[in-house]
Amino acid sequence: HVDGLAHTAHKKVVAKDGRPICVAANIGNLEDLAKALKNGADGVGLFRTELLYMERTQMPSEEEQFVIYKEAAEMLEGKPLTIRTLDVGGDKSLPYLKIPKEDNPFLGLRAIRLCLREPDIFKTQLRAILRASQYGNIHIMFPMISCMEELKKAKHLLEVCRQELDRENIRYDRFIKVGMMIELPAAAITADDFAKEVDFFSIGTNDLTQYTLAVDRMNESISALYDSMHPAVLKLIRMTIDAAHRASIPCCMCGELASDERAAALLLEYGLDEFSVSLGAIAETKSILLKSITT
Ligand code: PEP
Ligand code: MG
Q1: Residues forming the active site
Q2: CA 233 to CA 241: how far, in whole Å?
Q3: What percentage of the chain has pLDDT greater than the value 70?
Q4: pLDDT at 225
Q5: Under a CB-based contact definition with an 8 Å cutoff, are residues 293 and 13 in contact?
Q6: Given its phi and psi angles, is residue 89 left (phi above 0), alpha (psi -120 to 50 degrees) or beta?
Q7: What average pLDDT does this structure show over 30-39?
Q8: Which pTM value belongs to this model?
Q9: CB of 275 closer than 8 Å to CB of 23
Q10: Measured in angstroms, how far is the CA atom of residue 205 from the centroid of ligand 1?
Q11: 206: CA distance to ligand 2 center in Å?
Q12: Which reaction does it catalyse (predicted)?
C-alpha cells in the first residue's frame, strides 16, 4: 500500500490558488529524520526534542544538543527544521528532574511553564538551537503558550541567549524564525495578539482537542468523545489560520488532524500552509491533498 504511494512521496503539493503546500514530518530524533527524508518530507514541522532528554540519565549538555541539531539541519540541506523547545510534564517525566506530584499533570507544570521555571535548562537548549542555526534553516517553536506573558518571557530569554553568544563571538542565524504552538483554546481565541509577536503558528490539534473538549487524550474509556473535528475545535483552527493570515504569517498544523483524510479538503479551504505529519503518513498525506486539490 505504502509502496504504491512511493511516486507521490517526492511530489510538491500546490493548492488551487497556486500556494505551495509544505508536507513536513514530525520527528523525535535523527533516525526519524533519515526516514522522513526518504519518505519525501518537505521539511520538519515538529522536532519533539523531549525524546533527547528522556532517553538518558542526565540532562543533555548544550554541546550534545548542538551536535544533534546541527546534524539535523545539515541533513535537511536547507529545508526547514522546526525545533520545539522541551515539552515535558503532563504524561512525560524526566528521571533527573523532579516535577512535584500533581493531581492534574496535563493542567500543571508542563512544557513552557516548566522551562520558564527552570531558566538554566531552557537557556541551555536555546543556546544549542541558536548555535546550530547557522548550519541550516532552523526555526524555534515554543509549546503550550497560554498567555502573552509566557511568550514575552520566552522571547526575552532567547534574546538574553543571543546577547551572550554575541559577547562570546559565536555565530548564529540572526534572522532565525520564532514561532509558537497554538494548542490551548486561550491561544487560539487570542491568536490575533500572538500573531503580532511571532513569525509563524503551528496548531497542535492533539492538545487543542483535549483542552477544548475536556477529554483526556490518554484516557481510552472516553476516546469516543475525543474528536478533533468537533465544530468547536474546527472553529478554533479556523480562527487561528485567519489570525495568522491577517498578520501575514504562515500557519502550520503538526497535530494528528493534519494527516486525517476527512479533514484535508477543509484545512486547505481554511488556508492552512503546512501539514506536518508522522513519518508513515507523509506520502499518504500528499496523495490525499493532491486528490482533494484536483477534484
Ligand atoms: C499536539 O498537541 O497536537 C502536538 C503536536 O504536540 P504533542 O502531541 O507532542 O503534545
Ligand atoms: Mg501538544
Answers
A1: 254
A2: 13
A3: 99
A4: 97
A5: yes
A6: left
A7: 97
A8: 0.96
A9: yes
A10: 7
A11: 6
A12: L-histidyl-[protein] + phosphoenolpyruvate = N(pros)-phospho-L-histidyl-[protein] + pyruvate
